[in-house]
Amino acid sequence: MLCWRKISADQHIESGDVMKFSRRTFLKTVGVASAGVTAAATMPERFLSWAEESAEAGVKLVPTFCELCFWNCGLIARVENGKVVKVEGNPLSLRGRGRLCGRGNAALGALYDPDRLKYPLINTGTRGAPVWKRASWDEALGVIAGRMEKIRKEHGPEALALFSHGTGGAFWKHLLKAYGSSNYTAPSFAQCRGPRDTGFLLTFGADVGSPEYYDFDNSRHIVLLGSHLGENAHNSQVQDVVQGLARGARLTVVDPRLSNIASKADDWLPIKPATDLALLLAWIRIVIVEELYDREYVGKYATGLEELGAAVAEYTPEWAEKETDIPAETIVRIARDLGKSAPHVCIGAGRYAVWYGDDTQRSRAIAILNALLGSWGREGGYYLPVSGGVPEYPGLPEYPHSEGVPRLDEAYPFASLQTTTSIRQASITGKPHPVKGWFVYGCNLMKTMPDREETIRALANLDLVVAIDVLPVDMIAHADVVLPECTYLERYDNLSVGKFKELEISLRQPAVEPLWESRPSWWMTRELGSRLGLQAYFPWKDGEEYLARRCEAGGVEFAELKKKGVIVRSGGASPYIVPGSEPTFDTPSGKIELFSKQLQEKGFDPVPKYTRHPQPPQGYFRLLFGRSPLHTFSRTTNNFLLADLQKENSLWINSRKGRELGLKDGDTVQLETSAGVTSPGTIRVKLTERLREDAVYLYHGFGVHAAGMTRAGNRGVGDDELIAKPTVDPIMGGTAMRTTFVKPVRRG
Ligand SMILES: Nc1nc2c(c(=O)[nH]1)N[C@H]1C(S)=C(S)[C@@H](COP(=O)(O)OP(=O)(O)OC[C@H]3O[C@@H](n4cnc5c(=O)[nH]c(N)nc54)[C@H](O)[C@@H]3O)O[C@H]1N2
Ligand SMILES: Nc1nc2c(c(=O)[nH]1)N[C@H]1C(S)=C(S)[C@@H](COP(=O)(O)OP(=O)(O)OC[C@H]3O[C@@H](n4cnc5c(=O)[nH]c(N)nc54)[C@H](O)[C@@H]3O)O[C@H]1N2
Ligand code: SF4
Ligand SMILES: [Mo]
C-alpha cells in the first residue's frame, strides 16, 4: 500500500513535487511492490477468516471491491464493532495485487461522509431551483413508477433513457430493458473512451478492453501519447508500467506537459497540442519506408499496406517537425528504435480520448502503428485476453422489443454505444423520437457533459428526472426524485468480471449495514419492477441470492467467492499468438484493416488524414486538463480524507509566460475563454517549467457549486465550466473537449 500513496499523498501532490522523486527511487518502490504481489500466492490466513471466523473478537474482515474509480480493485474491510475502521488491498485481486491507490485508501471518507444523501427526496420546486421534501421510499418509488407508466402510454418505452457509470448501473440497465427501452448511455463513451474503442474496433475488430490489454511489464519500448499514468492512477496498470521500466523497457512520452510518467521517460516529446496525428502519421511512414514493420505478421494478418503506404507518403519527418515542434531526427530515431524492439512494443491506446474531434482517426493511427510493428497479440505489446465470463442471471424472460424505432444517433455510423449527446438532442427536439424521462445513475452530468446550458434545456422538456447517487452533487438539483444509494461498503452489487490473461471474478458484499435510509440498486430496481408489473424480471429475494444464482449458473463457487472476494480462473490458452493458434479478426475482411473500406463506404477517410486544428489566438492559452492522482473527477473532491490532502486545483502556467503576464505563484485568477465565458470560481496560479508556453493545465473535478457539498463546494475551477460547444467526432459522436482557449484574469 505504500507505493504511489507515498509518492502522492505524503508529498501533497500537485504533481510538480513528484519531480523530486527520481526514476531510481521510483523503481526501488517497485521492488517493494512486487513483494506485495508475491503475497497473492500465499494468501495470509487472516484474509481468509472473515465474519464469524475472525481471530479477534468483535472484528470482521470483509473482502469486497472498491468503487472510488472503475478499476474495481479488491479490498478487505476491517470492521470493528459495526464500523469500518480500515481498508487494505486484497492480494488476490488482479487489479490491485494487494494494494490500493490513495483514493482507494480513503474509503472511510466516502462511507462516513456526513454530506451523503440520506433519504429519498422529492423536488417540490423546479429543476435547477429545488425545494426538497423528504419522502418515504414507498412514496418516491410510487411517483417514479407512475410517471414511467405515463411516459410508456404517451410516448412508448423508448422515450425513457438511462445515463450510467459504475457497477450498480447494471441493475438499472436491466430495469430499462425490461421496461422496453434500449436507450442507455454513459459519459464514459462519447466523453471518454469512445473514439479509442472505435478506432481499434475498425482496425482489429476488437477494442483494447478495460482494464486495457497492455502487456507493459514485458515491453521493450512503451510509448504513451497523453496517458498520464501515475496521475491517471489505475492501480495494476501503474504497477505494470513500473515493472516494465524496472526490467529495462524504454519509455517515450508524448505530452505538452512533463507529466509524472514523462518525468521517468527516456524521451519526453513536448508536442504542440492537437498535432499528435502528424507525429503518428510520420512514424507510420518511416516504419513503412524503412521497412521496419513486421513483414511476416503484416503479410499474414493485415490488409491494405500498399494503400496505407501511398496515403502517408506526404507525411515526412520534416513536415511533422513543423506541425508538432518535435525535431525530425527525434521522430526518426524513435521510429527506428520501435522497429528494433518490435514486436515487444506497446503504443498505448490512451483512455480519455476525446481531444480534438478527429479522435477516432488518431486512435486508428495508433492502432495501425501497433499493427505494423506486430504488437497485437504479442509479448510486450497487447495480450489476447482470456475468453469467457460469467453468464447473466439464468431463466429471465426475454426483454420486450419495440419495432421500427429509429436510433437516436444515426448521424454517427460507428457509435457502438448510444451517445449522451444524441439523447440530450432528442430530449430537446423530440426527433427522431421523443425522450421524456432520464434516469441518471452515478453520473454527474452537470460536470461531465459539455455544454451545460444545452443539458438544462433538455431537462426542461422532460416529464421525469431521477438521480440515483450517494452525494448531493451538482446533478441532484436538476432531479425530480433523488434516490440515495448506499455506498459500495454497504451493499451487494453486480459481479465485477475482469478479462486479463486470466479471468477475474470479484464480489461486492456489505461490510456494514446501510446508513440512514440509503438502499442498494438491486433493491430499488426490484421494487420499481414490481410496481411496473415486471416482477418476472426480478425474481431474486435479495442481492445475495441474485449473486449466488449467477455464480451457480457460471460454475463459480459462491461460498469461496464470499470468503476470498476474488476468484481467478486461468483461461488455458496462450495470451500471445503462438503457432497453431491463429488469431481471427472480427473485421469485414477478417484481417487487420490498415485501410478501412468500412470507413470509406460511409464517406470517411479510409486511412487517417491530417487536418490542422485551430491554435490559441494571441493572448490566449489552450485549456488542458487531466486527473489528480488523489481524486476521481468530482466523485471524491468532497471526501474528507482526500480533501485534506488536496482541497482545490491550481492553474499550471509556463513560468516565463506567467511572469510576462505579471503573475506570481499563488496568485488568484479567474479564467476567461475566447468565447467570453468567465469561470464562476477562482484558481491559484502555479508557475512551472513543466508545461509548454501555449497551454495551461488543471485537474478536472473541482469547481463544484452544489449546495450541501461542504468540502468540495466552491473550490478551484472546473474545465467543464468553460468548455461550451465541443467539436464532435463525425465517426462516433465523441465530444472533443480540448478546444477551448482561455486567459487568466486577475480577480478584482
Ligand atoms: N487518479 C485518477 N485516475 C484516473 C481517473 C481519475 O479521475 N483520477 N479517471 C480515469 C478515467 S475515467 C480516465 S478516462 C483516465 C484518463 O487518463 P488518460 O487517458 O491518461 O488521459 P489523457 O487525456 O490521455 O492524459 C492527460 C494528459 O494528456 C496531456 N495532453 C493534453 N493535450 C495533449 C495533446 O494534444 N497531445 C498529447 N500527446 N497529450 C496531451 C495532458 O498534459 C495530460 O498530461 O484516467 C483514469 N484514471
Ligand atoms: N470537462 C470534462 N468533462 C469530462 C471529463 C473531463 O476531464 N473534463 N472526463 C470525462 C471522463 S474521462 C469520464 S469517464 C466521464 C465520467 O463522468 P460520469 O460518468 O458522470 O462519472 P463521474 O464523474 O465519476 O460521476 C460521479 C457520480 O457518481 C456518484 N457516485 C459515486 N459513487 C456512487 C455509488 O456508489 N452509487 C451511485 N449511485 N452514485 C455514485 C458521485 O457522487 C457522482 O455524482 O466524464 C467525462 N467528462
Ligand atoms: S485504482 Fe484506486 S480508486 Fe480505483 S478502484 Fe483501485 S483502489 Fe479504488
Ligand atoms: Mo474516463
Coarse structural class = alpha/beta
Computed CA radius of gyration, to the nearest angstrom: 25 Å
Strand tally: 27
Sheet with the most strands: spatial strand order: 5-4-15-14-13-6-7
Beta-strand residue percentage:
15-25%
Low-pLDDT segments: 1-53
Bound molecules: ligand MGD, iron/sulfur cluster, molybdenum atom
Distance between the termini: 45 Å
Overall outline: globular
Largest sheet entry:
7 strands, mixed
User: Percentage of helical residues?
Assistant: 25-40%
Describe the protein.
Helix content is 30%, strand content 16%. The chain has 23 helices and 27 strands. The strands form 7 sheets. The protein has a 7-stranded mixed beta sheet, with helices on one face. It has a 6-stranded mixed beta barrel with strand order 20-24-21-23-22-27. The chain has a 4-stranded parallel beta sheet with strand order 10-9-8-12. Helix 6 runs parallel beside helix 18 and helix 9 (276-289) runs antiparallel to helix 12 (317-324). The radius of gyration is 25 Å and the shape is globular. Mean pLDDT is 92; it is low at 1-53.
Features:
748 residues; alpha/beta; seven-stranded mixed sheet; 23 helices; 16% strand; disordered N terminus; binds ligand MGD; binds iron/sulfur cluster; binds molybdenum atom
Topology of this protein?
Blueprint: H1 3-8, H2 23-38, H3 45-48, E1 59-65, E2 74-80, E3 83-89, H4 107-111, E4 121-123, E5 132-134, H5 137-155, E6 160-164, H6 169-179, E7 184-185, H7 187-204, E8 221-225, H8 235-246, E9 250-254, E10 267-269, H9 276-289, H10 295-301, E11 302-303, H11 305-311, H12 317-324, H13 328-341, E12 345-347, H14 359-372, H15 420-429, E13 437-441, H16 445-448, H17 452-460, E14 464-469, E15 481-484, E16 496-499, E17 502-506, H18 521-531, H19 543-553, H20 558-564, E18 566-570, E19 592-593, H21 597-601, E20 621-626, H22 640-645, E21 650-654, H23 655-660, E22 668-673, E23 683-688, E24 695-699, E25 727-728, E26 735-736, E27 741-746
Parallel strand pairs: 6-7, 6-13, 8-9, 8-12, 9-10, 11-19, 13-14, 14-15, 20-24, 21-23
Antiparallel strand pairs: 1-2, 2-3, 4-5, 4-15, 16-17, 17-18, 20-27, 21-24, 22-23, 22-27, 25-26
Helix pairs in contact: 2-8, 5-18, 6-18, 7-14, 9-12, 9-13, 9-14, 12-13, 15-17
One ligand MGD binds at residues 69, 192, 225-228, 232-234, 254-257, 259, 271, 273-274, 276, 350-352, 355, 624, 626-629, 631-633, 697, 738.
